[in-house]
Amino acid sequence: MALAANLAIAVAKAGAAAITGSSAMLAEAIHSVADSVNEVLLLIGARRASRPPDLRHPFGHARYRFLYAFVVSLTVFWIGGVLSVLEGVNHLIAGEQIVDPRWAFGVLALAAMLEGWSLRTTVRAWGGAKGELTWKRLLRDTKAPELIVVFLEDLGAIMGVAIAALGVTLSAITGEGAWDGLASIAIGILLMAIGLVVNRETQSLLVGEAAAVGVVADIRDAIASTEGISGVRELRTIHVGPEDLVVAAGVWVDAERSANAITRSIDEARHRVGEVAPFRTIVIIEPRARDPEILPTRADDTASPASDPSDP
After folding, report:
1. Alpha-carbon span 56 to 170, nearest angstrom
2. For the domain 2-207, what is the CATH superfamily, name and number?
């Protein structure tokens, strides 16, 4: 439905650009085409990510969602941003005037209503995940690349319509087509900025991000509070997908306990991690025995997760 609406908006904007000769309207048409392409890419990424694990990909294919979101960032930058800037520059060089701007205003008004509805839907859909976080913080912390792409695209669409409307208005009032060309360039710069933000965030996800700080703290507490585990000497987490988390922990156990008792404690720790981590979680726990007389203090147990696991 959203894809069909974006394509319809793109056609309407392109038609208005052809009638009025508005560079800003053409830039907005390019913007809507880029949004449509991005929706297709995200759908392909989601479909490929749903494949089950296999011998070559034992942790599954969820990272396809990160990969296709990264491709989206390139699409926004190059197709949406660069082409819009080039169109604006060509319009300035040609010194063309726009005619009958009523068509542009009508299409922009329709686009503003549809894009506003889309942004409202996105905000409502992700309101629960946002909680008390700011949107900026949520975009940095989230492991869902679709949120980053869709929110920024919806926000950029509203801003793009506003810029185009301002450019067309100033051109109509002053009779100077340069305002329209400048609006096209501004839309292109906006899209390039959005592309760079999406690129930065999805690169980080592709490289591999740890779980959120609060989740890591909950996991550490869940392991450390398990009976039979004396402390956590190391803890590392990595998202292999938005809902897939790998947890690797090194723990101290009492050297006097039996192997069966240690195994039961590790199993219980795994179970507790699964309860506090809101993901499909793979938990790897490596026990290491230590003389009870030289066990680390609780402060030492919660040392930095970057500490060397080989430390005595």
Report:
1. 58
2. Cation efflux protein transmembrane domain (1.20.1510.10)
pLDDT at 86: 97
Give the C-alpha separation, 235 to 20, whole Å.
Answer: 61
Third-level CATH fold of 213-301: Alpha-Beta Plaits (3.30.70)
* Equal CATH topology for 2-207 and 213-301: no
182-238 pLDDT per residue, tens: 999 999 999 999 999 999 999 999 999 999 999 999 999 999 999 999 999 999 999
Query: Going by DSSP bridges, is the β-strand pair 229-241/280-290 parallel, antiparallel, or unpaired?
Result: unpaired
Q: For 16-71, give the DSSP string.
A: HHHHH--HHHHHHHHHHHHHHHHHHHHHHHHHHHTSPP-SS-TT-STTHHHHHHHH
Report pLDDT digits (tens) over 139-166.
Answer: 988 999 999 999 999 999 999 999 999 9
